[in-house]
TrEMBL record:
Domain DUF7344 intervals: 33-108
Taxonomic path: Archaea, Methanobacteriati, Methanobacteriota, Stenosarchaea group, Halobacteria
Protein name (record): DUF7344 domain-containing protein
Superkingdom of source: Archaea
InterPro entries, sorted: DUF7344, WH-like_DNA-bd_sf
Length: 129
């Protein structure tokens, strides 16, 4: 099956995964870059599912440890995971304006982004197939 055949067969998926950067603040490439790592995807999912747009690093780390343990069946190294999110993933999300992150208070505030949330939903749907 060539590329064109595949696209014509996926019309239902295409409609479900239609997303637009409604705010115009991030390109599609920037959104895809943010979603390449499972820690960033899980962090965003934490805030999408949460009733509050603010959390502590400890709350997000606990969520990520639980999420990673469910995915792999192994207990995650909490310290390693916290170092990775505080030094790599949260700063990257902050740089793109998706979160506000205060390292001193260890507070994270999510800034909703409809295009990024829609793309994450599409990627999760593809993962479950």
């Amino acid at each position: 099956m060539d590329h064109n055949d595949r696209n014509s067969d996926d019309s239902g998926t295409e409609a479900e995964c239609d997303f637009t950067d409604l705010e115009g603040s991030l390109s599609t490439d920037a959104m895809l870059e943010l979603l390449t790592h499972p820690y960033r995807r899980a962090t965003l999912q934490y805030f999408i599912d949460a009733s509050d747009e603010a959390a502590t690093i400890d709350e997000v780390t606990t969520y990520l440890v639980d999420h990673e343990s469910q995915q792999s069946g192994d207990q995650s190294d909490r310290g390693r995971l916290e170092i990775a999110i505080t030094h790599i993933h949260l700063p990257m999300l902050s740089e793109k304006g998706i979160i506000e992150y205060d390292a001193r208070s260890r507070e994270i505030r999510y800034r909703r982004h409809e295009g990024l949330e829609a793309l994450l939903g599409c990627l999760r749907a593809l993962d479950s197939t």
